[in-house]
Amino acid sequence: MSDITQLSIAELGAAFRDKALSPVEATKAYLARIAAHNDKVNAFVTLREEGALAEAKQAEVDIAAGNWRGPMHGIPIGHKDLYQTAGIRSTAGSRVLENDVPKEDATAVARLKEAGAVMLGKLNTHEFAYGPTNDSSMFGPCRNPWDTTRFSGGSSGGSGAAVALRLCAGATGSDTGGSVRMPAACCGITGLKPTYGRSSRAGIYPLCWTMDHAGPLTRSAEDAALMYQPLPGVDGRDASVADRPVPDYASALEGDIKGLKIGVPTHYFFDRAQPENDKAARDAIAVLEGLGAEVHEVDIAHIDYAAAAAMVLYLSEGTAYHDDHIATIGELYTDQVRLFLELGNYILAKDYLHAQRYRTLLGHAMADVLAEVDVLAMPSLPLTAQPIGQELIEIRGKTESVFGAILRNTEPFDLTGLPALVLPCGIGADGMPLSLQIAGRPFDEAGILKVGHAFQQASDWHLRRPSD
Amino acid sequence: MTKRSPIKPESLQSVSAELAGQPISSEKAKIHAEVFENIMQMVETLRELPIKDVEPAVIFHPVERGGDN
Fold it and tell me: What value of ipTM does the predicted structure carry?
C-alpha cells in the first residue's frame, strides 16, 4: 500500500477486520507523518508513540484472535487537549493546567478506547476553547495546512489541522459556538456537532455548560458516522445526556435523498456571507437538488439576536467556571482569554436569563421551520480562514470583527442544540476551503449524516488535501 | 424600555473590586469600558425581545443519588 494515511476510517477498519493490514503498520505510518509534518502546523502538542504502538499491537493481537470490536478498532486518532486523558497531560491549551495529569478519562475518550481506537496524542486547542481561531494557546497558534500563515479555525484547531494534513485518521473536538465546525470548515474536512444531550461532555473542560457539545472531525461523513457511533448513550457523569435509542449511523447512510426537503434560510446565513461562500453553498445545494431533494427558501424568526445571546452565555458561564483562577492565577491566561473572563464579571443575571429565554424562543422558531422541511442548508462560515492575528474583515461592504463573523452561522445551532454537520464544498479565490453546513431536527444525526454522505458520493471536495 | 448611560471605566473598576472581588487597574478598566460598551449595545437588543412569557432554556433536574450528577 503506497500511503496508509490516505485511507479513510471506513477503509482502514475494513482492512484491519480482514487482516489485510495491521493497526501497527497504520500507527507507524501516522507517527512518521507527524514526525515529518507536525511542526509546520503545530497540531499535536503531546505525543505518545510508545503508548499508541502498544495499543495498536494489542488491537492486532485481538483482531487476529477473532475479537474485532468494530470499525474503530485499531484506528489511530487524536484527542483535543480539552479532553481529560488518564495519566496523560491535559492542558486545555493553558498554562493554568500546564502540568495537569488527570486520573480519569473523559467519557468520550473512554468510549473510543473501549471501541478499540488507538490514541496517538493530544491536539492543540484555543485556550479553554474560548475562541474561534486557535491562535491563543500556551503552545502557540495552530496553523492551517492549506496556508500556514492562516489560522486553523478553533477552538478545535489542532483536530482540524491534523485530520486535514493526515496526521491522524480522525480527531475529537468540542463545540460551544462552532468549535468542531469552524476548524473543519477552515481546514476542508467534515465535522459533526451532535444534538445537545446526545453524548456526554463529562471530563471535557467546560466553556459553557449549557452549550458545550462533543463531536468528531474526520475526512468524510461516513467516517464521522463511524467515529461518533461509540459516543452516545447515558452517562452517570453527565446529567444532560438523553436516554434514547442510538441508531446505527453507518447503516443510516444508505439509500437516496429523493424527496428530502431542504430549507434554505437566505436571511442571516447567506446575505451576510462573502459572495464566494454564498455561491459555493448554493452550488452544493444544487448538487443535492440534482439527487432528488426539494429546495425551499425559509425564514427563521428572531435569528438576528443569536450573536448577542451567545456572547452573554459565553461571558457568564465562562467566567463562573474560571472564577477562582481569575482571582489567584489570572496572569497565566493568554491576554485574549483573560480579557473575556474579566468582562464576564459585568454581565447582569437578568441578561443571562434573557439570553436563556431567547434560546427557547429561537428553539421554537427553528422547530416551526423544521416541521416544514427535513434539514437546513447554508454556508458553514461567511468567510474563509484568515491570516493569523487579523482582527477585522470586510464582508459585503461592512467591516466587522473576525471573531464575530466566523461564529455567525454556527452558533445558532449551539444555542438551539440542534445537530449540524459541515462538509467541504469548494476552494476560494485565496486557495482556502469553502464549506456547506447541514442542520437537522433534534437527535437526527443520522439524517444529516445521510445528506452529507449523499453529497460526498456525488462530489470530490472531501477528497482534496492540502499539499505537504 | 429602560435608558442606559454609557459605561464609565470607574464603574467597571468598582464592580471588579467591590462585587466580583477581582480588582483591576485603571488602565485595564479603560480597555474594558471600550470593549464592554459594544457588548452592552448587543445585550440591549435582547431586552427588547418579546420574551415576557418565555421560560429560560435552563431546566432543573432533581438529583437522584446513584444516578445523574
Answer: 0.94
User: By C-alpha distance, which of A345, A163, A351 is closest to B51?
Assistant: A351
CA-to-CA distance for A414 and A211, rounded, in angstroms?
Answer: 6
Cβ neighbours around A328 below 10 Å, total: 10
Q: How far apart are CA A434 and CA A296, in angstroms?
A: 22
- The pLDDT tens digits of the residues spanning A413-433 come to 999 999 999 999 999 999 999
Side-chain-side CA neighbours of B56 within 13 Å: the count stands at 15
Measured between beta carbons, the chain A residues lying within 8 angstroms of B42 are 307-308, 311
Q: Find the residue in B nearest to A335 (Cα).
A: B28
DSSP codes joined into one string, A159-224: HHHHHHTTSSSEEEEEESSSTTHHHHHHHT-EEEE--TTTB--TTB--S-TTT-EEEEEESSHHHH
Does the beta-carbon distance from B69 to A315 stay under 8 Å? no
Nearest CA among A367, A331, A317, A301 for reference residue A209: A317
Residue A241 has φ and ψ, to the nearest 5°, of -75, 130
Specify the 3-state DSSP secondary structure of A366: helix
- Rg over alpha carbons for chain B, rounded to the nearest Å, is 18
* Contact by Cβ (8 Å): A428, A456: no
| Cα–Cα dist A306/A265, whole Å | 14
- Give the separation between CA A360 and CA A15, rounded to whole angstroms: 46
C-alpha distances out from residue A334 to A242, A385, A387, A433, B35, Å: 36, 22, 19, 28, 17
- Supply the Cα-derived Rg of chain A in whole angstroms: 20
Q: Could you identify the residue written with the cell 437588543?
A: B45
Strands (E), A289-408: 294-298, 375-379, 392-395, 398-401
Residue A101 per-residue DSSP state:
-
The model carries a pTM of 0.97
Please give the residue that has the higher pLDDT: either B65 or A211.
A211
To the query of whether residue A261 is one of the catalytic residues in this protein, the response is: no
Which chain A residue has its CA at the smallest distance from B42's CA? A308
HSE value, Cβ hemisphere, 13 Å, CA-based, for A65: 8
